[in-house]
Amino acid sequence: MNQKLTAPEHPLRNFSVLLSPTPRGARLARLLATEQLRTWGVPLDPARLVVAELANNAATHGRVPGRNFRLLLYVIGETLRIEVTDTRSDRLPHPPPAGPTAESGRGLTLVAALADRWGVTHSLPPRKTVWAELTLPAPESPEHDRPRSGPACAPHALPTGEKAPRQAPPLPPAGQTHSRE
Question: What confidence tens digit (pLDDT) does each residue in 66-85 have?
Fold first, then answer.
């Protein structure tokens, strides 16, 4: 009857925040996401770029006065999922063909290029969620973090004309003594 609970190999980590659908709210989403990813030890790029684009789209195209948008980040295993939920389910995102001189319209193209997967999910009316998933790199092995032997810096070079300090002779093997010559 007594069962031992084991910790999952990859813990579930999540972060959620409501923000105003304004340029300031979109900027805050990027800054908060950056700090959360840094806290988790997750690579910042391309995740913060994806957050910036999705939050900007929510503030620009998903804005309804008096209604906030939600930023949700979570990591399951080796996948980071970024979700931005707004209250304009009638306006679905689609990457428009942006001309070479267009000043906007490339956000979702950028998300599609940076994310491994992305899409839109309809929630309870009037909400929709635009999501993107990024596969995280495998953590480095502990060998990379170990201190290495060897010189820490270049040997000290004495100015010309000075004698080097005398070094002590090496220690003899165990059981033997130095001879004084």
Answer: 889 999 999 999 999 999 99
CA distance 20 to 14: 20
Task: Tell me the CB-side half-sphere exposure of residue 61, using CA atoms within 13 A.
Answer: 21
Burial tier of 127 (Cβ tally within 10 Å: 0-12, 13-18, 19+): middle
DSSP states of 74-135: EEETTEEEEEEEES-TTS--------TT-SS--HHHHHHHH-SEEEEEE-STT-EEEEEEEE
Q: Are 85 and 69 in contact (CB under 8 A)?
A: yes
Predicted model pTM: 0.69
Q: Which two tokens mark 23?
A: 């340029």
Q: How far apart are CA 171 and CA 178, in angstroms?
A: 8
Element (H, E) at 59: helix 47-60
Q: What angle in degrees, to the nearest 10, is found between the helix axes of 107-114 and 47-60?
A: 150
Residue 52, H or E segment? helix 47-60
Write the pLDDT tens digit of every residue in 111-143.
Answer: 999 999 999 998 888 889 999 999 998 766 555
- Please check whether residue 82 is in contact with residue 47, taking contact to mean a CB–CB distance below 8 angstroms: yes
Q: Give the span between the Cα atoms of 32 and 16, in whole angstroms.
A: 10
